[in-house]
Structure formats: C-alpha cells, structure tokens
C-alpha cells in the first residue's frame, strides 16, 4: 500500500473525531531486546485523552486504539502472562463503566492486515493480556505520540508518552 493511500485510509478511519493537526505524520520504528515495534505519531489531544481516561463523551473515547504493532522474537512475560513470539498489537482501551483504561496485548494474524499496519482501529485477534493503563502526568509534553522500546537488564521496557502523560510496560524474559 503506498504512503498516500495509507494516509488516506488513516484519514477515513480516524474520521472527524480527530482534528487535521492530530493525524499521524510518520510511521516510527523502535527496537530493543526481543521487541520490535512500529506506530504512528498521532498528535496530542488533551480533551480526547481525558475522555478516554474518565469515560467521557469525546468521539475518541468511543473505541479502542491500536497504539503499536509489536513483533516479539522471544516469548516475554507481562504481569504473569506469557506473550507469544510473532506479531501482536498494543491496544489502548478507554475507560468503560467501572472498567479503567487498559492496555491490551492482542495476538493477530498478519495476513488479515496491511503491512505496515498502524491504523488506529484494531483488527480482530485473540486477547493475550489486559493490564491497567497507568499513565502518570509528567512535566515534559510531547506534541505527538512517542513509544520507545529499551532494555533494563534482561527486561524490555515499552514507554508510551502521549502529551503530558507517560506509561511504562515492563516485559520480562521468560523464566524469570
């Protein structure tokens, strides 16, 4: 799929819920340890994020968002659950009723999505793990979504920094 066609697809999928400035500009790649990830750099929208965190009425809070395509070269453990080798999605689910905002790891079949697929709407897949999305407010405000993989000893960290909010997922090597 060509770059222009992919961005047109993103514009249609994102729809009027996102202002033109918030549409992604680039596909970003980050890699560390056994984690290879790709994502698009959505612009910071405080109203949308607050609605997702509180269960508010903003259009962005009405659905789940695919944050990144994860490719794991080795099985990793996230909060007690082993994640399979291969392609998975990191999905951000908004607060719904009494359920808080969560991160979901979704095992997917790459044959059903375009390559590189970093569209905001997650395709069907099998949920491997759901954990609370514990974002903290930080002083450093990023104008666009930034997701970075890094190593900390044998662990692999995935840091999601969106605007003035940051959350860290710690993936442990299997057997630890």
Low-confidence stretches: 1-18, 114-119
Biggest β-sheet, characterized?
Answer: 6 strands, antiparallel
Q: How many beta strands in the DSSP annotation?
A: 10
**How many separate helices?**
2
Strand order of the largest sheet: 1-2-3-6-7-8
Overall morphology: globular
State the end-to-end CA separation: 40 Å
Structural class: mainly beta
- The domain count comes to 1
Question: What series of H and E elements makes up the topology?
Answer: HEEHEEEEEEEE
Indicate the mean pLDDT. 83
The radius of gyration computed from the alpha-carbon positions, rounded to a whole number of angstroms, is: 15 Å
Which percent range describes the beta-strand content?
A: over 45%
Give a written overview of the molecule.
This protein has one domain. The longest helix is centred in the first third of the chain and has 12 residues. The relative contact order is 0.20. The chain is built from two helices and ten strands. With 176 residues, it is mostly beta strands. The chain has a six-stranded antiparallel β-sheet, with no helix packed on it. A four-stranded antiparallel β-sheet has the order 5-4-10-9, with no helix packed on it.
Explain briefly what this protein structure is.
By secondary structure, the chain is mainly β. Helix content is 12%, strand content 47%.
Question: Which descriptors would you attach to this protein?
Answer:
mainly beta; 12% helix; 4-stranded antiparallel sheet; 176 residues; disordered N terminus; globular
Protein topology:
Blueprint: H1 3-14, E1 27-32, E2 35-40, H2 46-54, E3 65-72, E4 76-78, E5 81-83, E6 86-93, E7 102-107, E8 126-132, E9 136-152, E10 155-173
């Amino acid at each position: 799929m060509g770059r222009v066609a992919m961005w047109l697809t993103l514009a249609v999928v994102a729809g009027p819920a996102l202002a033109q400035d918030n549409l992604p500009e680039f596909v970003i790649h980050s890699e560390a340890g056994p984690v290879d990830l790709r994502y698009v750099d959505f612009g910071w929208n405080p109203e949308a994020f607050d609605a997702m965190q509180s269960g508010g009425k903003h259009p962005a809070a009405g659905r789940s968002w695919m944050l990144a395509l994860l490719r794991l070269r080795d099985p990793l453990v996230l909060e007690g659950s082993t994640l399979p080798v291969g392609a998975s999605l990191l999905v951000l689910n908004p607060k719904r009723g009494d359920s808080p905002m969560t991160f979901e790891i979704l095992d997917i079949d790459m044959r059903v999505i375009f390559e590189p697929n970093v569209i905001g709407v997650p395709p069907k897949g099998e949920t491997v793990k759901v954990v609370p999305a514990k974002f903290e407010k930080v002083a450093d405000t990023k104008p666009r979504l930034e997701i970075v993989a890094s190593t900390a000893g044998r662990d692999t960290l995935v840091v999601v920094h969106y605007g003035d909010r940051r959350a860290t997922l710690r993936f442990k090597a299997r057997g630890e």
